[in-house]
Each structure stands twice: as structure tokens, then as C-alpha cells.
Fold this sequence. Notes:
Order of helices and strands: HHEHEEHEEHEHEEEEEEHE
Number of helices: 7
CATH superfamily of the largest domain: Formyl transferase, N-terminal domain
Structural class: alpha+beta
Distance between the termini: 24 Å
Strand content: 15-25%
Shape: elongated
CATH architecture of the largest domain: 3-Layer(aba) Sandwich
Amino acid sequence: MQASPVKELAQELGLPLAQPVNLRDAENLESLQKAAPDVLVVAAYGLILPSPVLSLPRFGCINVHASLLPRWRGAAPIERAIMAGDEETGVCIMQMEEGLDTGPVMAQQQISIEPEYTTQPLEQILANTGSELLLATLQKLPVAAKPQPAQGATYAKKLTSKDRIADWQGSAKAVHHIVRALSDRMPVRCEINGVVMQILAARVVGQNNPEATKAKPGTLLKTAKEGFYVQCGQDELVITRLKLNRGKGQAMDAAAALNGYPDIFYSGAEIDAAIEQ
């Protein structure tokens, strides 16, 4: 267990700190009532705020949410945006209500999702943007909030082990989106020649060789120092960085993997995406 940066700073500054398991019991609710907050702010907070808490602060409860609502309400908006191939996302400062991320929006800022972004750097950009937008909003309270549009709502469901399975039958671009979204925390997993491989980085190349398209999706078409070329339903995914459950299990580039494990990586080898998670 490791203390969050918020907890560490609160302790350093001698601020009151509470970590309630839930916000529904009388003791926790009473401590909030005694604090008599003007406003309550949450960001990536894991607990549901019950009605008595939502109605307690004078200016209500505010959430810093990492998407352009109503798109990607829910637990994993950053990963889901990358996985879907979205070209932009952003931050919303929203007034909380009992529905999941359904409240009216007080302020928002758009952010482009660059093709090379993985979740971690995008998350940091959104966090920085969100903190600035939050402070600007707090200084203007009360702020008129705009209801979310009825159309375009999507749900960013919690990530599970099933999200780590690459569908080689689909396009290389779609697989690449998943690799980018998950590489920082729970990389795509698959199996090649009985060895578990995690894909940490990859790129997409178009397919100009008619013979290559006859190969079964998931087949290694070519192994080279710059990467392993995998047949997909459309185009090829070039795996450039990976981990294996062999040796020390460290991250390595394709050249190191080719030098160390020629018995695993060779043209014609098949990658099985349906590994037991």
C-alpha cells in the first residue's frame, strides 16, 4: 500500500485527512456536516456520493472528469477514448447529481489525442488541464452549468482482462489502439510458441504484398530488428517492444528478442490471442 500524493501533501501541511470506506454511514456524514463545506470536489474518486452528501455543500459537488461529456461517462474514459480511435478528448468540470457522470457541465477544455499518445502521458496532460480549469471554475462560483446533450452518450466501462486480448481478425489499426491504451498499466497479452508475450509498443504498416494477405491473422510474416510483422485482418501490426515470461521478464525491443529467442520468433510462427487470463 502506498499513500496517494493528495494524502502525502495533506499530512505535510497538517490538514485534516479522512479516508472513509463509504459515505453512507452516520459518522462519516456527520463529519462532513461539521465541516460545512461551500463546495466538495472529486477527481477519479472511487466512492458513490449519496444524496445527503450531494446536497450538503452550498455550491454542490463538482467532479473533474477526463472526457468531453456525454462521451465516455464512467470509470475508464482515457483508455476507452484511445481504444476507440478518438482524435480528441478533454476535461469537463461538472455539477454532480445521482446519475453516473450525467450532471450539467460548468466548463470544458478540448485536447487532441496525438497518434503517438499512450494513456499515461495523455492522463498527465488531462490532469494538468483539469487542475487549471477547476481552479478557474472555483474562483467564479456560482457558475451556470449547461445540461449535457441527450445524444452521443457512451459508457467507459471498467477495464478487465478481456480488454487485453488482441483480435487479429480485425484491423492492425484497431489492435494498435488497444496496445497504446493499455501498454502503460496492463499491456495486451498473447501467446506465441507456448510463451506469454506482452505487447508494449507497436506501429501499423500497410500491406502491398498480395501473398501476405493469404496468411492466417496472427501469423508472423517477417521478423526483423526493427520489429515483428504480424498479419491482421487488414494491414500489419509491427511489434517493436515487448515482454516475455522468460528470463527476467524485462521489457526489450524486437532486436533483443530476436537475438535471445530465435526459437520463439520466426516467420510463420502463430500468435494466439485467446490466452487464458
